[in-house]
Fold each of these.
Amino acid sequence: MNEIKFINVGYKDAENEILKGITMEIPAGYIHTIIGPSGAGKSTLIKLVNRLIDPTEGRILIDNTDIRDINIIELRRRIGMVFQQAYLFDGSVADNIKYGPMLKGINNIDVKHYLDIVGLDASYMNRKVDDLSGGEAQRISIARALANEPEVLLLDEPTSALDPASTQIIEDLIMNLKDKLKLTIVWITHNMEQAKRVGDYTIFINNGCLVEYGVTKEFFANPKSEISKLFIDGKLTKGEVA
Ligand SMILES: Nc1ncnc2c1ncn2[C@@H]1O[C@H](COP(=O)(O)OP(=O)(O)OP(=O)(O)O)[C@@H](O)[C@H]1O
Ligand SMILES: [Mg+2]
């Protein structure tokens, strides 16, 4: 189980209300894609889940426990995150994959196993991360997140900097992870074709509000809200429609 619940979640900074009254349940074991115009609040929403920021209103629960009641290191172990640009530190591939477990005192993880999961052979172990292609580096970022044995994976546009072939590899890899490891996956994308391909459910955010949440096929075939229709048709940008 690794179900995520948002209860009336809001996030404000000094000037702006960035997220407003988000209430939704993300059931365990599926891929949820988050879509919405640039600036809608998608990245802010997922940053709340592993407490890179905290809500200014409402609560977020994982398996019915408020995430503020979970030790933050434990929370971030349980919830892996992958960003648009591969997030790696200088050093070898193996150093990067070993890092998370090392923080917990585990020094003997099987690096090859995690390389294998992301479809890279053992020769990558000693490669310097600076020498990797964007697609390879993104696969190492995923391997690094997986080495913590997370239950939830948050993906913030993980393929938007990649070419179509690398995008396909990452999509297949993540879909495979969902099936094999039963991870709960929340995936932000601007690519509607990708959202249709990978998502079991679609979450549409506009102007900091949850507009629509539905089974992906139904959302795209028959969006319930006028704003969703405009967005799918490429006719909505931030702020145009409240
Ligand atoms: N640290 C911050 N300080 C002030 N404003 C911020 C901060 N981070 C985000 N914002 C603002 O909050 C709003 C939502 O930003 P967010 O990054 O969540 O959007 P997004 O939906 O992920 O957009 P994109 O698709 O372009 O990545 C934007 O108006 C942005 O300018
Ligand atoms: Mg974003």
Amino acid sequence: MPHGHHPHSAPPVNGATSLFVRRFLARPGAVAAFLPSSPAFSRAIARHLARAADEYVVELGAGTGSVTRALLAAGVPEERLILVEIDPEMAAYLHRAFPRATVIAGSAFDLPDALPASASGRIGDVVCGVPLALFSLDQQRRLTGMMLDLLPAGRYFLMLTYRPAAPIPGPRLGLTGKRLETVLLNLPPGSVWGYARNRPPTA
Ligand SMILES: C[S@@+](CC[C@H](N)C(=O)[O-])C[C@H]1O[C@@H](n2cnc3c(N)ncnc32)[C@H](O)[C@@H]1O
């Protein structure tokens, strides 16, 4: 018997995933991934947090909160999360799903002005989920510089990518990048990268 369409045997689709896919279809260039990060990939990102107990985590391009959920599960208090998302429907969803987090509905490029004053000097990690690989070198320079300026000197920001190679040209941006982890249980397989400024040469 051919496999027909069985409405009652369809797998349950969770609201976040269907919203993600719908917004991908509406704005493929900005969303840049067909599916949200898997739980396994999201947990891998959260494993590399460097924050001290009281510090905030800024997540750029939080989408429908896959990585956000893993950050919470890793022990980041919801009120220490600052979520930035350019898609208005996704930002509204994040606001409903994480009511105690700070949700900034706008572009990562408009930080740091949009950040709450209470977080100033108290940001321990920045997780970059915006598809920086698709941006111009100048935009990459601006956003990576901004992320590193938010962090204590010498700390890495975290970046997720679905590319097999480095997501941004570290050397051209004056950055040292290292692949921290690759997770095959994601479609497509994902890697977590950390980037910091090149150490100035010691005299
Ligand atoms: C590849 S998705 C990642 C979503 C989520 N972090 C995840 O891992 O499932 C990229 C997200 O970045 C958002 N985005 C794209 N450009 C942005 C920008 N300039 N500022 C803030 N968010 C942006 C998109 O709307 C989308 O939600």
